[in-house]
Structures are given as C-alpha cells and as structure tokens.
Amino acid sequence: MAELSMNTRVPLGNGTAIPVLGLGVWKMAEGEETEHAVNMALEAGYRHIDTAKLYGNERSVGKAVRESGIPRGDIFVTTKLWPTDFLAPERGFRNSLERLDIGYVDLYLIHWPVPFMSRKIWKTLERVYEEGLARAIGVSNFSIGDIEKLHGYARILPMANQVEFNPASHDLKLVEYCKEKNIVVEAYSPLSRGKLTSSPTVAAIAKQYGKTPAQVLIRWALQHGTIPLPKSSNKERIIENTNIFDFSLDPADMQSLNTLSR
Description:
Blueprint: E1 9-11, E2 17-19, E3 23-24, H1 32-43, E4 48-50, H2 58-67, E5 76-81, H3 89-100, E6 107-110, H4 119-130, E7 137-140, H5 144-151, E8 160-164, H6 172-180, E9 184-188, H7 200-209, H8 213-223, E10 227-229, H9 235-240, H10 251-258
C-alpha cells in the first residue's frame, strides 16, 4: 500500500481529488457544535468535511469553511440529497448550496435509494455537475443492484458510493465491485458509532500496535481502500483520528477484524 498522509488525495472517476480522511458531522447540532468541530478539524489538518441536508447543519459547515482562512479550493465538502427532495431534486440541491454558501459542492450524493426511484433524480445530479455546481457526483447506501440500475440509464456514472463500513458491518463484495467500476467507496460510521471501540478483539490489536481502538478501526477502513469519515466534535478525538498514517495492520489482523462482521 502506497504511503499515505493527511495530504493524500485519491482521484475520483473524473480526476477530482478527494482527501483520504474526512470529518463526518452527522448528529452535530447546527451552530456552535458543528462550527467548532469543523474549525478544530481544519486546524488539525483535515481538508474534507462530510455533511447532508438530513444532518441539519449545512449552514454551520459553510460558515466554518468560509471563516477558516483556508482557500476554498483546498477544502473538499460533500453534501447529499435526501428522499424528501426527490420530487424536486433541483430545488433540493439549490437549497443545500444556498445553506452552505461556498460557491459549489465538491461531491453531491443521492443519500439513500428508494424503490422505483425516478430517473430525473440522477439526471438532476448530472446537470448540476455539468454546470460546475458540483465538482463530482455519486450515491450513498447503494447496493450492487442499485448501482447496476443506475448504470442502465446514466450518462455520467457515479464517482463515489458512501456506505456504512466497519468490522461489524461491511460488504467486501460491494467494495470490490465499486473498485472495478472506478467508484470510490467512502466509509461512514468506521467506529460503528463507538460500539466497536470496546470490542476485546479491537482492544487487543490496538494494544499490540500501541494505538487506540479508534485508530485501528479507521486504519482498517483505510487499508480496505475506502475513505473513512469518522465523526467527532471532541478536539482530542478529532486529532487522535488523524494519527493513523504511521503504522499499518498486518494481513492476519485485518482478517481478524474482517471476521467481526455480524
């Protein structure tokens, strides 16, 4: 595996480069909590922030990005279209863009697939991409079958698929499929919402490497070729989650973690 760092970016299908580690802001309150977390992350070297309409904190993410003093082009911001906007996807995107107020979105995703999803939803994403309002487009929580359906009519193929990915809940076949289709997989809930940090298996591996359970879990996701998006609004943990580039898990430990899957 090539040597990685906080500065490493991975090319998406269109060449847009996405940082290998991001900050997730799910369940963070609009206002001070989100702004503070994004500020701390940017100070700690993160250049990748992942939000969504559903999270209700796009305004705070945008404010922190604008006031950071870091050039807009250096920060990668993702947001997502929630199914309540599927009847008017263009309006859903414009509203997110207005709340963020950062000029454009680096990656725009369909947050969740629904049965018999209208083709106009993906067509809208293609349009905002072609207008340069979204630098890249993709999907979230899509299975192989969902992506195959999309491939049946898409002119522009999805560049990313964001899914839950941690040792307790992962689909390695989906990751392999996405790799073959040149779709980058982003890993949300890499710590399984904190549940896995108390796993005896994870704790034993962490002790062996002189690392924390969280660092081992994020490293595991990274070594599977995914882009982990750990969520935290705690300064120490935000910094701790970046210290994953000075070690690598050996194949036996990767396999031990793989087998924690439910």
